[in-house]
Amino acid sequence: MVEPMIGLKRSHGCAALRDGDVGGKATLMGWVHRRREFGGMTFIDLRDRDGITQVVFNPQHNSEAFEKSQALKSEFVIAVTGTVGKRPDGTTNARLATGDVELLAESIRILNTSKTSPVPVADETQATDEALRMKYRFLDLRRDKMKNRIIMRHQIAKAMRDYLDSQGFLEIETPILVRSTPEGARDYLVPSRVNPGKFYALPQSPQLFKQLLMVGGLERYFQIARCFRDEDLRADRQPEFTQLDLEMSFVEQDDVFTVIEGTLKHVFKQVAGIDLQTPFIRVPYREIMERYGSDKPDTRFGMEIFDVTEGLRGTEFARFNEVLERNGTIRGIAVPEQAGASRKELDTLAETVKSLGAAGLYAVAFQADGVKSSIGKFLQESHVNALRAHAKEGDLVLLVAHEEKSKALDILGRLRLELGRQHKLIPPGTYNFLWVVNFPQFHWNEEEQRLEAEHHPFTSPLPEDIPLIDTDPRNVRSSAYDLVLNGNELGSGSIRIHQRPLQERIFQAIGLNQEEANEKFGFLMEAFEYGAPPHGGIALGFDRLTAIMSGVDSIREVVAFPKNQNAVDPMTGAPVEVAQDQLDIVRIQVKATPKAPQESGVLV
Q1: 301-422 is classed in which CATH architecture?
Q2: Tell me, which fold does domain 19-112 have in CATH?
Q3: Each residue of 409-468: pLDDT tens digit?
Q4: CA angle centred on 530, ends 526 and 533, rounded to 5°
Q5: Which DSSP letter does residue 377 get?
Q6: CA gyration radius for the chain?
Q7: What global pTM score does this model have?
């Protein structure tokens, strides 16, 4: 049944034929998308990467081709030669670029057959389990939705390259086999055969190398870089991921912003036909946390957090008084047009905030006939007015009281997002960009009782805050910035340290002594002593950007061959055990996994 393609050449793609081709000959190749029988004839929708053409097998026109067509099934690979014809009146298909024409088959070769596909290719309305789609990814990629996302991924990468090239950037590859350095997540390790007992690490980012490229005088670098992190996975994480990485010499923060805004403006225009408004707004970290309870807020809707700590002093409500006596805070949000929320709805919300660490949720509804609240009897008119300043008639005010301000903000920030989705407050098809600036230089690791770098230890503090490193490090602000898009951290970057003495002070502040610093980063600090220029940069999540522009939540939907949430490739089965002789070559011995104790009547 299967025939070779030898001597046969494709003349057109399956999306190419138009009215101007009518009467001419064409040879098409592709997959059988659908098959229909009508009026004694067989109709095949023939699909390739670019589109679909209807092929007609008419026994009156060519009986041999018609007979061979009777063996065709979905996903068979075929080559068809015939004459391009005009579709009869009333049979055109406006949904297809080729919908006004058809190919009247004169010969057919079956290039390969196909078993029944476990993943429906032609009918994308049929739900398919994600695990099955990942196991048969080579079939899943044939579906229009997946194919179009992969095509968009290519278009985004091309648009980035074109724009950055126009701005004088050089695309430079950095090593994949590097030394292990502490960057916040576990490294993937690669044993060295020629250096027994020693290991490379796969790069979590090209951070050190792109800084060294600046020391090397290349001034403007970019790379669509593959990165690797051994961390727990979720919808927006993969063990291997891609980022747009760039670095620039002799720049300040505004220069980096201008390049990134220009890049994204070009990408959205070229790929999606969308005109982004630039410059993007900029908000300091502390302000953004006060307003949204998150450093990656979704600003497509309002419902910002407000502070009523002072406005609610003097109530007779015990929980409020208890919190205020401990110098805590009372914060709230106003949910528009939800003053009529039922007791069941309020109880569900209360359980949600309790699961996040709040003692309770306190609701005040501003209804047409007055204020309704379970704590209403404890509120005087001045207290109600303090709340009314943040709400209008029909709104539901939700309050959280907590001894820790950061906790209250975090709880309300999460509640805000949940309610925004629940009540459809987020307008579809919008793209809200936001720069978050002036992050803290350090954060406190409670478990280890020490300071850690908020971003990474190569971030420069704001010049005016450098004197605070030794005296008040928790109030040092950094030259770090995040780019947020629709509630997602799209990118993160900073102006870097480029002088050894300052880099050593930062290492010292996070508990890295000089010996450890030299062991891990000696090559970088030595480079700083050879005329390192001021420099800065950023990395954008390429997978995340593609997912947002494609309208999907998971980056697995825009990666050709992703891993699942257990870091397993269901298609190839990776990771797998390897033969002992392979382990012997790199002198590795695998320890047996300890067996779980068997259940018995004895406690163990």
Answers
A1: 2-Layer Sandwich (3.30)
A2: OB fold (Dihydrolipoamide Acetyltransferase, E2P) (2.40.50)
A3: 999 999 999 999 999 999 989 999 999 999 999 998 888 888 999 988 999 999 999 999
A4: 110
A5: G
A6: 31
A7: 0.93
